[in-house]
Amino acid sequence: MAATATEERVGTAPARMEVEDGVAVIRLNQPGKPVNVINAELLQALDGILARLEKGEGGARAVVIVSEKKGTWIAGADIEQFKDFRTPADGEAASRAGHALLGRLERLPIPVVAAIDGVALGGGLEVALACGYRVASDSPKTKLGLPEVQLGILPGAGGTQRLPRLIGVRGALDLMLTGKQLDGRRARAAGIVDEVVPAPVLLPIAKRIALEIADGTRAPRTASKTGSPENVERLPGMLSVIFRKAREGVLAKTHGLYPAPLRILQVVHDGLGKPLDEALKIEAKAFGELAVTPEARSLLHLFFVTTAAKNDAALPEGTKPRKVEEVAVVGAGFMGAGIAAVSAEAGIEVRLKDVKLEAAAKGLKTARDTLVKRARRKKARRFEVTALIDRVQATTEYAGFRQADVVVEAVFEDVKVKHAVIKEIEAAIGPDTVLGSNTSTIPIATLAEAAARPENVIGLHFFSPVDKMPLLEIIVHDRTASWVTATSHAYGKQIGKTPIVVNDSPGFYANRILSPYMAEAALLLEEGARMDEIDRAMTDWGYPVGPITLYDEVGLDVAQKAGKIMAAAFADRMKPSTVVDRLVADGRSGRKNGKGFYAYDAEGKRTGPDESVYALIGSPPARAHDRAEIQDRLGLMMVNEAVRTLEEGVLRSARDGDVGAVLGIGFPPFRGGPFWYVDQVGAQNVLNRLRALEARFGARFAPAKLLEEKARTGGKFSDDAA
Ligand code: CAA
User: In the prediction, which pLDDT does 629 show?
Assistant: First the structure.
């Protein structure tokens, strides 16, 4: 049923319309929702509004669609509803319903202008594409994009067809295959948006433009009816080159493991040149089919668990975070500089301290370079870049630390050094400052032993490179105060990270599950497996890089150190092999010194596996290992360890375990995280495979008790697992 006039009057309708000065203004504001989403209620409300416009109500000469929800225009289709799709026909029908409504919008005899302030994502942008003109605000909150590929689906409300017809195939594929989001200015450069104006004048300008289009003094900008509007794309053979290159790019990036990007390519290709309605049928069918794939289900699960982790730190009711406006970072190395940069980018004033001026200056330069690079990518103006880099100050003193809301120590990974630094920091700060340690393995309780106020001490484990890695692992020890956890969680969100809160234990969560996986890879080498064979098996399973490459990237010296700490804590199953020791003894640190498992040329470019490593470790390649065996040994080692961390209470929830593994260490997103993986393939299945490995290779593969329990009871780890 359409929203009634009463609903519109009392403001409970998700959309309402008033005719003002000849312009019908449609105001979107879904009651009780943090963002506007396209769901049954909104569709019904728009259906009613369109019927009124089709009848010419109020003599409106033009239409403007605007949002009253701060920060959002429309955040796309309601992702919750995808959970209810059981068959491809369900998704196809939903897509067709969207097509029908947007078709009516597009066919209105009067011009429609989208006035976008805030996010216009997925179905949101697709509504805008069906309009005759798009005006966006210059607010940093305004973001336009088609992120469906990240959910394992494709734009199902006309995006695959209208966007290539509006901006050309190449530009459209770039947006759809990456899911990237553009602010108003970049969206205008890409041809999606026609005008960018300051937010306070968005509505009056959009109304004026709408009337100009109605009067014929300004031309509308709609999608081309005959295919790509780009002349160059009309040249013979050009489109096949574009599609071939895009397909090659997708396969190189995804190893063919993700069906959505390949399907996007196919749908854009097949729809081009066809009448729009026919092309939209192709889109709807593909949307329905993709929506029920296991990959889409896993990626959807990830969306929900990531959002939940961001919004819920599982703290006692009423715990309030403190405002974070100033941050100090001690240790201006690569990590410290990264933490400084992401904090400054979030508008926080930063002091970056090191013992020596040269080190502090070097860190400052690294932080500034990162900021400039990122700002340029966003096409920031010069004065904006200057303001940004001015937020980071380098120092060798603790002066000014008292104002800091959070101090992060990122000094050398050594208990003695960290204890000394914690004492120094404490002397310079007050009782209201969070004292975070960016340690990757040392228990936080051990670090807090040096503190006079251990309740202020918390682990803030960032991942490298800090500006790119989306996870912040927050580690609480027995005495961490809840306001400290709440403030750390809020700080994590403020700097754009997804925080998970875990309990103290060696290696915490991320490194705890990575450690036996890496150790097993080294054992495989000892057995005579080839380096590239191991790496390829794991990238084929969906990891971004294999474990041997990861050793080189992390640094063999760093891996050796972490391996020893983990081995001391979990000797039964994380005994490090001698392989890493031998490489380190041979002066190999990995990529950073151009010598590791792999060989590097003078420019630092990797040239291939270094064959001399086999002699060094005394294990020439002996037998060809079965790919599935490598994948099971490594993959299940990590999954089983993840279950142990939940069993022991290191993890507070399976949810955080999935988020941490995917965002922190690259567990394949389309598998949804280790817990989701078990739920999908079945705990009994994983148990059987682990028992088979235990029989062949020993007790390190003994299944976790909680896994046995799940297999026995048929219980699932995830609430949303079918
Ligand atoms: N559907 C349902 N709920 C959504 C949603 C959506 N499209 N977008 C956001 N939400 C919800 C979140 O789940 C969260 O809910 P809770 O507060 O209950 O946990 C709330 O809105 C706020 O979201 P965030 O915490 O993520 O807030 P944020 O300010 O950090 O980010 C956002 C806001 C940029 C909109 C972000 O939520 C986001 O990226 N959303 C997803 C956008 C998206 O992928 N859209 C495409 C949908 S698929 C589609 O549209 C298919 C099609 O072709 C028709």
Answer: 94
